[in-house]
Design brief:
The complex is a heterotetramer of chains A (758), B (291), C (156) and D (91). Chain A is α+β, with helices and mostly antiparallel strands. Chain A folds into three domains: 4-32 and 463-603, Aldehyde oxidase/xanthine dehydrogenase, molybdopterin binding domain (Aldehyde Oxidoreductase, domain 4), CATH 3.30.365.10; 35-144 and 218-294, Aldehyde oxidase/xanthine dehydrogenase, a/b hammerhead (Aldehyde Oxidoreductase, domain 3), CATH 3.90.1170; 310-462 and 607-754, Aldehyde oxidase/xanthine dehydrogenase, molybdopterin binding domain (Aldehyde Oxidoreductase, domain 4), CATH 3.30.365.10. Helices cover 28% and strands 25% of the residues of chain A. Chain B folds into three domains: 5-50; 58-171, Uridine Diphospho-n-acetylenolpyruvylglucosamine Reductase, domain 3, CATH 3.30.465; 178-290, Enolase-like, domain 1 (2-Layer Sandwich). Chain B is built from eleven helices and 14 strands. In chain B, the strands form four sheets. Chain B has a five-stranded antiparallel sheet with strand order 4-5-10-6-7. A four-stranded antiparallel sheet of chain B has the order 11-12-13-14. A three-stranded parallel sheet of chain B has the order 1-3-2, covered by helices on one side. In chain B, β8 (152-154) and β9 (157-158) form a beta hairpin. In chain B, α10 (242-255) crosses α11 (266-290). The longest helix of chain B has 25 residues, at 266-290. Chain C is of the alpha+beta class and 156 residues long. Chain C has two domains: 5-80, Ubiquitin-like (UB roll) (Roll); 89-155, Orthogonal Bundle (DNA polymerase, domain 1), CATH 1.10.150.120. Chain C contains five helices and five strands, in the order ββαβββαααα. Chain C has helices at residues 26-33, 89-96, 106-119, 125-131, 143-155; strands at residues 5-11, 14-20, 52-55, 58-61, 74-76. The termini of chain C are far apart. With 91 residues, chain D is of the alpha+beta class. Chain D has a single domain, classed as Roll (Ubiquitin-like (UB roll)), CATH 3.10.20. Chain D has helices spanning 30-40, 44-48, and strands spanning 5-8, 22-25, 49-50, 53-54, 58-62, 65-66, 80-85. In chain D, the strands form two sheets. In chain D, strands 2-1-7-5-6 form a five-stranded mixed sheet, with helices on one face. In chain D, strands 3-4 form a two-stranded antiparallel ribbon. The termini of chain D are far apart. The chains are: A alpha+beta (758), B alpha+beta (291), C alpha+beta (156), D alpha+beta (91). Chains A and C meet through α1 and α20 of A and α2, α3, α4 and α5 of C.
Chain lengths: 758, 291, 156, 91
């Protein structure tokens, strides 16, 4: 049994192969230029002064000592932001949204989390900036803080925003509250569904705040030129997103802002939000020189956006044969200091694996005194999957039904209507479950002292806008220009789709990621959309090239375009066998037939890729110490079509391992007031090489009907099943249901003590 | 980081003079793996950093089966576990040296530095105490010796007077039929701070069935590493069996005065001390019998 | 102004002189003074391994080495791993095995792996996992990295 | 005879539609859908729209395709129209 299987339905020439990535050599030789490697002549270094308090009113800020510190060139506070100088009327639009965005970048009146920026210094180097920053006096009036999501929801809880009122799908509540929004979706008759059940189980689950843990800290370099043009070189998942944020906060027309995305050292959703860009921009405007900022690891933990902690209640009714009759969940996720947790996305994902007639989901978006949460790989879905898949495991144990059989019995398939109402098109969940059932891992004996858990997950994989331009060089090599930042190999996967469409060699496509002035709007790299949506743009641009090449051939042969076809990289006359040109031959002749050829496309695909995954985890537990070890792990996932199977496997393995970390050891420790206590890689315990086995993979390929090669998108769903798979495995060996993440050794011991075992 | 001047004396005398002239303005650096992190966080910054790695005595590793081991205070961990003679003679020391940080840290961090850093969780300290390590300290008034168990006085504070520095640690020669082991409990398998740690050394009689003596020390369960003297002493002259080991582990538990923090609760830590004491004693016994 | 010290070191086989402040780490000196940005900063406190380089034959975190300590040392960074003849076998293996996604941890992993295989050319999976525990990667789940190192290890 | 589009009323707005979960309408785009809904159930428009665009956090889905044309999105005969949570992205 090989450890990496690909269950292919269709073979292509380039798509589905494993070429070396175009940016590979630069990345193994240290030549690749990441954001932090940017070094323009005369660059100043910036440091951001951050609040030591999770909740406080800023009474005054005295920057005078810092300003006069030798080597300091500028000091700014929120007073330097347009929010401070323009009236509500001048700002127009949604004043609250702008205030939230601007205050998140730098607090104007209150700090809402430890690490909240209050001032920034630009100096000749980072040491000087740091020393000067320590001289800034901020007078705070410390306020009570609220940290726990359920505490924050209680009536009478300390209010974080005086004006925030619950938005119940367009209806605003009368009283202020920390509940920013509530949303409910319901299908069928839930009461009747539960009444029809033979067994109804209900449990509560919680998960801790976790971080994406990308290894490269946030960084940016800004240069606000004297002509008014603002240039940014930064590490981001979305250069256009940075442009939008900066232009919004600084009240600049977007055309005045150019963002050059540098190589990015990981993001997983956490590098969608722009934290440093506006700050460096203002410092650059004040100093007239480029200004660069690099977050420390502590700043990354305390002041970028982690994934929310959550509380969830899940209730499931089943018949004795295992058929689900009704489901219900309430989910509350903490948004951090400003509204916008991913709970609304969790609503779509929570029960999307199952075909169930009756269901109700309530989601609450709750503000607390923690850093504002950001996207993290399938935002919202992993928490929901942990709760739902854990309870399903409990039901399987109760009914003595095999967990894969149970899921097969209830699996969502083509035509299944989800609770929010949408109907599944062709999806591969059943195929994933079947691949799991027949996998060597699942058939193997469970070792003594070890438990085995199974869990599933779902992510919709929606499309969004992408733009691609490609030019045909005279040597037949195609320059592929795109706006999608390459985090994990998308240059390769887009080049492969381009080569496949043009019928040319992969090596004859040269991809480049360009700045916001050089390509049409392109949405973030995230949400498992890039290989799918930017792939669609590349395919469409390649079709544009093909059409133009047909018209060139028509000129050369003095034939009608209708008589010419472009098949597998050959341009030929349909009826005259003599008239035939390879892509390269014709490329050479473009100079004399009207000049270079450029293809272009901007797309905004509307369908969903619908990713499903099933994971199997074996976890050994030392019941005397509570220590866990993942001894075997298999990730099975429907990729639709794996464009580059190695990088698909990498996404599956990486997602699984982030999930294993989330399951077992990763968490923000906060004191009672909301101060993070473990803001380092030493104490925020991400898995190391020594904590893991090889991660076996099975790529299932059930083609996505919405993409010519069947691509679905693969990055997100891989993180949805592992927490429950691991938790279910731990339950298997300890006999205790672990309903709170992370499942630390301490919690395992406590569970044993409470139940009078071990 | 605040600016500092970097001084690297090349002899003990020079170091003594340097430290005497700078007084409390100087901070001593060996591997720097703890110190640089602290200074970067604004803790313990000083106008002068005195690097003692150029001093020959601080790099000394001399082992003699009859005299024991003298381990220079700046000797990085890898030199212990990569030296087969040393790791055979002091397997407990090897246990600790090979789990401080990752391989990169072990290329720089030293046992001496670990002791002077005086963290309650210092991974090498319990085993050095269990092995009866003695600190050789140099200062303006000459040299003095101090048992390792007296070196740590509070979290991050050691018994060195101003102007003094640790030159080396001396370990008695391993006795016949002796063995030692250090284990810590961490949630991951590497790169972590001990939730609890136990170092045990035992000497058995020729039959291997009875304890001659034992020393047990604990990490992460008090403001300083703990020498659980009564726990070790309880084994002297006793037969090797589950009951005597259990009794010793219970004494070790009562010597532990842990707090609850983000790494663990009082109950968890006390429980772990019991488990780890048993496990380290059993491993040490096995090594003693195999030796 | 803070004291500035001249440091002479052998960097990737060449003798190099540079001026630095004592408080500057070797990582800073490489990146900010010498312009060698292949060595990456991930945490600046010795817990991620992104800044790993080889100093006198040992792998170290360059964020925990002062620039002044490089005096008289021999240092290998990622920039010194490939030769004009081509990539180092580990670099080639990382490419072929897709052992990198974002690539930020890659230089550190390559240097750490080189440090291992230079000493133990036949390191097995267990040894590789133990040796690389000080290098964090968040993208790959380590599987392909370990395989890439194993491939070179077995080749020897 | 013209076939009507089926509009699924989000659960939270069914209080406005007196418990009606879905209804059929003659509408050729999302704007007409909203207009028709407002005619039948005054007050529903302001729950769906914000400044004449679909409210932030919501997406209109017509026949399984997420609308990218907002109020201009075409609604066909026998189309299914849903107002569902918007989905962003992760990593």
């Amino acid at each position: 049994m090989t450890s990496n299987q690909v269950l292919s339905e269709v073979e292509f020439n380039v798509v589905g192969k494993r070429p070396v990535r175009p940016d590979g050599v630069d990345k193994v030789t240290g030549r690749a230029q990441y954001g932090g490697d940017t070094n323009l002549t005369g660059t100043l270094q910036a440091k951001v002064l951050r609040s030591p308090h999770p909740h406080a009113r800023i009474k005054s800020i005295d920057t005078s000592k810092a300003e006069s510190f030798p080597g300091v060139r500028a000091v700014i506070t929120a007073k330097d932001l347009p929010l401070a100088s323009l009236s509500k009327e001048e700002l127009g639009g949604d004043y609250t949204a702008l205030k939230f965005a601007s205050d998140h970048m730098m607090a104007s009146d209150k700090v809402l989390f430890k690490g909240h920026p209050v001032a920034a210094v630009a100096a000749i180097n980072a040491h000087v900036a740091q020393s000067a920053m320590d001289l800034i006096d901020v007078d705070y009036e410390v306020l009570d803080s609220v940290v726990d999501v359920r505490e924050a929801m209680k009536p009478g809880a300390t209010l974080i925003h005086d004006e925030l009122r619950t938005n119940d799908m367009g209806e605003t509540a009368d009283q202020p509250s920390n509940i920013a929004a509530h949303m409910r979706y319901e299908i069928g008759d839930v009461t009747k569904g539960f009444a029809d059940a033979d067994l109804v189980m209900e449990k509560e689950f919680t998960t801790a705040t976790v971080h994406q843990g990308y290894i490269e800290p946030h960084n940016t370099t800004a240069f606000w030129n004297s002509d008014g043009q603002l240039n940014l070189w930064t590490s981001t998942q979305g250069s256009f997103q940075v442009r939008a944020t900066v232009s919004n906060i600084l009240r600049l027309p977007i055309s005045k802002v150019k963002v050059t995305p540098m190589e990015i050292g990981g993001g997983f959703g956490g590098k969608i939000t722009a934290y440093l860009d506006a700050i460096c921009s203002i410092l650059s405007k004040k100093t007239g020189t480029p200004v660069k900022a690099l977050m420390s690891r502590t700043e990354v933990f305390e002041a970028s956006g982690p994934a929310p902690a959550s509380w969830m209640r899940v209730k499931i009714g089943v018949k004795n044969n295992g058929t689900m009759t009704a489901v219900e969940t309430e989910m509350a996720m903490d948004a951090g200091a400003y509204p916008g947790s991913p709970v609304m996305q969790a609503i779509v994902c929570a029960f999307a694996c199952y075909d169930v007639e009756n269901g109700r989901i309530d989601g609450y978006d709750v503000v607390v005194n923690k850093p504002k949460t950001a996207a993290y790989r399938a935002p919202g879905a992993p928490q929901a999957a942990f709760a739902v898949e854990s309870l399903i495991d409990e039901i399987c144990l109760n009914l003595k039904i095999d967990p894969i059989e149970f899921r097969l019995l209830n699996a969502a398939k083509e035509g299944t209507r989800r609770i929010e109402g949408l109907v599944a098109r062709k999806i591969g969940f059943v195929e994933c479950l079947e691949a799991a059932r027949t996998h060597d891992h699942y058939k193997s004996k469970v070792e003594k002292g070890t438990g085995r858990g199974v869990a599933a997950g779902y992510w919709p994989n929606r499309g969004f806008q992408s733009s691609v331009v490609m030019t045909v060089n005279y040597d037949g090599v195609v320059s592929l220009i795109m706006g999608s930042v390459d985090i994990g190999g998308t240059r390769a996967s887009i080049a492969q789709q381009t080569a496949e469409t043009l019928g040319i060699a992969y090596e004859d496509v040269k991809p480049t990621v360009v700045d916001t002035d050089s390509i049409g709007y392109t949405f973030i790299t995230g949400g498992s959309r890039t290989s799918f949506a930017t792939g669609l743009a590349a395919i469409s641009a390649a079709e544009d090239v093909k059409q133009q090449m047909i018209s060139r051939a028509a000129k050369i042969w003095d034939a009608s375009e209708d008589d010419i076809e472009f098949v597998a990289g050959m341009i030929s006359h349909k009826s005259d066998e003599e008239l035939k040109l390879s892509f390269k031959d014709l490329a050479r002749q473009t100079a004399t037939t009207g000049g270079s050829i450029s293809g272009r496309s901007s797309v905004d695909p509307t369908g969903e890729g619908n990713g499903y995954a099933v994971h199997i985890a074996d976890v050994a537990v030392d019941t005397e110490t509570g220590k866990t070890d993942v001894t075997r792990f298999t990730a099975i996932q429907d990729a639709g079509k794996a464009v580059h199977p190695s990088y698909v496997e990498g996404q599956m393995q990486g997602g699984a391992v982030q999930g294993i970390g989330w399951a077992l050891n990763e968490e923000y420790f906060f004191d009672d007031t909301g101060k993070m206590l473990n803001s380092s890689f030493l104490d925020y315990r991400m898995p190391t090489t020594l904590d893991l086995p090889m991660i076996d993979t099975v790529i299932v390929e059930v083609a996505n009907p919405g993409h010519p090669y069947g691509v679905r998108g693969v990055g997100e769903v891989a993180i949805c099943p592992p927490m429950a798979a691991v938790a279910n495995a731990v339950t298997g060996v300890t006999g205790h249901r672990m309903n709170s993440l992370p499942i630390t050794p301490g919690k395992i011991l406590e569970a044993g003590w409470e139940n009078g075992k071990s | 980081m605040e600016p500092f001047d970097f001084l690297s004396p090349s002899s003990i005398d020079e170091a003594v003079q340097t430290l005497a002239s700078k007084g409390n303005q100087a901070r001593i650096m060996a591997g720097g793996t703890d110190m640089l992190v602290q200074m970067r966080a604004g803790r313990g910054t000083a106008p002068f950093v005195v690097d003692i790695k150029d001093i020959p005595e601080l790099n000394e590793v001399s082992y003699d089966a009859s005299k024991g081991l003298t381990l220079g205070a700046a000797v990085p961990c890898y030199r212990i576990y990569e030296d087969k003679t040393l790791s055979d003679a002091y397997p407990g020391l090897m246990d600790a040296a090979s789990l401080i940080g990752g391989i990169q840290i072990q290329g720089r961090a030293s046992i001496g530095g670990n002791i002077c850093n005086a963290a309650p969780s210092g991974d090498s300290i319990p085993i050095v105490i269990a092995l009866g390590g003695i600190c050789n300290i140099a200062g303006a008034n000459g040299t003095r010796q101090l048992p390792v168990e007296e070196m740590c006085t509070a979290p991050g504070r050691n018994a060195l007077e101003e102007g003094e520095f640790l030159v080396s640690i001396h370990f008695p020669a391993p006795q016949a039929n002796s063995g030692a082991n250090y284990l810590r409990f961490i949630p991951r398998n590497e790169m972590d701070i001990a939730v609890a740690g136990v170092g045990s050394s035992v000497q058995l009689d020729a039959s291997g069935q009875n304890f001659v003596s034992a020393r047990i020390a604990l990490a992460s369960v008090a403001p300083t590493p703990v020498f659980a003297k009564e726990a070790g002493d309880s084994l002297a002259g006793k037969p090797v069996n589950e009951d005597t080991i259990q009794a010793a582990s219970e004494l070790a538990q009562s010597a532990a005065k842990p707090i609850s923090d983000m790494r663990g609760t009082v109950r968890q830590r006390t429980h772990l001390i019991g488990v780890l004491t048993r496990r380290t004693l059993n491993n040490a016994i096995e090594r003693a019998r195999g030796a | 102004m803070p004291t500035v010290t001249q440091v002479q070191t052998t960097l990737n086989g060449e003798v190099v002189n540079f001026l630095c402040e004592p408080r500057q780490s070797l990582l800073e000196c490489l990146r900010d003074i010498l312009g060698m940005t292949g060595t990456k900063e991930g945490c600046n406190d010795g817990n991620c391994g992104a800044c790993t380089l080889i100093m006198d034959g040992r792998i170290v975190n360059s964020c925990l080495v002062l620039g002044v300590e490089a005096e008289g040392k021999e240092i290998t960074t990622i920039e010194g791993m490939a030769s004009p003849e081509g990539l180092h076998p580990l670099q080639q293996s990382f490419l072929e095995n897709a052992a990198l996604q974002c690539g930020i941890c890659t230089p550190g992993f390559l240097l750490a792996s080189k440090g291992l295989l230079d000493k133990e050319p036949d390191a097995d999976e267990g040894r590789i996992r133990h040796w690389l525990a000080g290098n964090l990667c968040r993208c790959t789940g380590y599987d392909k990295i370990v395989r890439a190192v194993l491939q070179v290890s077995k080749a020897k | 005879m013209l076939e009507l589009a089926t509009i699924f009323i989000p659960t939270m707005l069914q209080e406005i539609t007196h418990g009606i979960k879905k209804l059929e309408l003659d509408a050729r785009n999302v704007r007409q859908v909203v207009d028709e809904l407002e005619k039948a159930y005054p007050g529903i428009q302001e729950r769906l729209l914000d400044a004449d665009e679909i409210r932030e956090g919501l997406a209109v889905v017509v026949d399984g395709d997420v609308s990218v044309m907002g109020m201009l999105t075409k609604v066909g005969e026998q189309s299914e129209v849903h107002f569902v949570p918007a989905i962003g992205g992760g990593g």
